[in-house]
UniProtKB/TrEMBL annotation:
Keywords: Membrane, Transmembrane, Transmembrane helix. Its EC number is 2.7.7.65. This is diguanylate cyclase. GO terms for cellular component: plasma membrane. The chain crosses the membrane at residues 12-35. One of its GO terms (molecular function) is diguanylate cyclase activity. It comes from Planctopirus hydrillae.
Length: 284
């Protein structure tokens, strides 16, 4: 009799435990599957009220910005290559989406002004044949002033060959100069007809990118970087292949920017890119 009661108690406890386990597992699975659906449903409902979904979106974006700031303050470890590529893709898509949201206008807004002007072609660098620094400074101000009058954004890209000093020691000044000239040719080939490529300093090439959103400027900078990364560089003898990559810093103009602010922003981005290794592109 006592044994029968113990068995009944054990059976009841086992049944209760299994029921609890099934309930917990069901809740967990439902949370995984229904959580994103419920979030999308709530956001879809919020879209019917402009002020509601706009406030909700801004709140979530502000939280993302806080999370990124916290992550930067807690850890300076760089992303591994696979996550770095994923981060750059997310950054590009997010910049483009934010730019499109920021550019939303009412039905009665006036059409944007046409952005069309000519570069000021002045002095050129003797070593590279590109417009020199004085011509760059003149055209940067020209681009920003014209962009302000047309209410458009533009960008500045600084490109520098990775491990230039190491190449000098290994291959000599003549071979390194030829490699740099080939890199410049790739930058020119990858740029748009409306862009201006200049000699920024001895080792740095600048690309003025007029009338581009930040997302468009990022994609253009990626094209330039990839054209260098995938090219087969050969020394003058044509027999030895050399790996050449470049680090790049991108800065996009804001209405209140002056030329020096844009230059310093691009310089900081370039320094950050070089600190992370080879073939890096950083936007600020």
């Amino acid at each position: 009799m006592e044994s029968h009661e113990q068995f009944t108690l054990w059976l009841a406890l086992t049944t209760g435990g299994l029921a609890l386990l099934v309930a917990a597992a069901t809740g967990f699975i439902c949370g995984i599957w229904l959580g994103p659906w419920w979030q999308r449903r709530q956001f879809s409902r919020a879209l019917k009220d402009a002020s509601l979904w706009q406030n909700r979106l801004l709140t979530e974006l502000e939280q993302v910005e806080k999370n990124c700031t916290f992550a930067l303050s807690e850890s300076q470890k760089p992303f591994p290559p696979d996550r770095q590529n994923r981060l750059e893709k997310v950054q590009s898509r997010l910049i483009e989406s934010l730019q499109r949201l920021a550019n939303l206008r009412g039905n009665h807004s006036s059409p944007p002004a046409v952005f069309q002007f000519e570069w000021i072609n002045d002095a050129h660098s003797a070593s590279s044949g590109l417009p020199d620094r004085s011509t760059f400074d003149l055209n940067l101000k020209h681009m920003l002033d014209y962009g302000t009058s047309c209410h458009t954004t533009s960008a500045l890209l600084l490109v520098r060959m990775d491990r230039h000093d190491s190449a000098l020691r290994r291959y000599g000044s003549s071979e390194t100069h030829q490699l740099l000239q080939k890199m410049i040719a790739l930058v020119i080939r990858s740029a748009r007809d409306t862009d201006l490529i200049c000699q920024f300093d001895e080792q740095t090439i600048s690309v003025l990118l007029p009338n581009l959103t930040p997302a468009q400027a990022w994609r253009q900078a990626e094209m330039i970087r990839d054209s260098i990364r995938t090219h087969h560089f050969l020394l003058e003898n044509g027999q030895q292949e050399v790996i050449v990559t470049a680090s790049s810093g991108l800065s996009c103009s804001q209405p209140q920017n002056n030329p020096e602010e844009l230059i310093q922003s691009a310089r900081r981005a370039l320094a950050k890119a070089e600190s992370l290794g080879r073939n890096r592109l950083i936007a600020e």
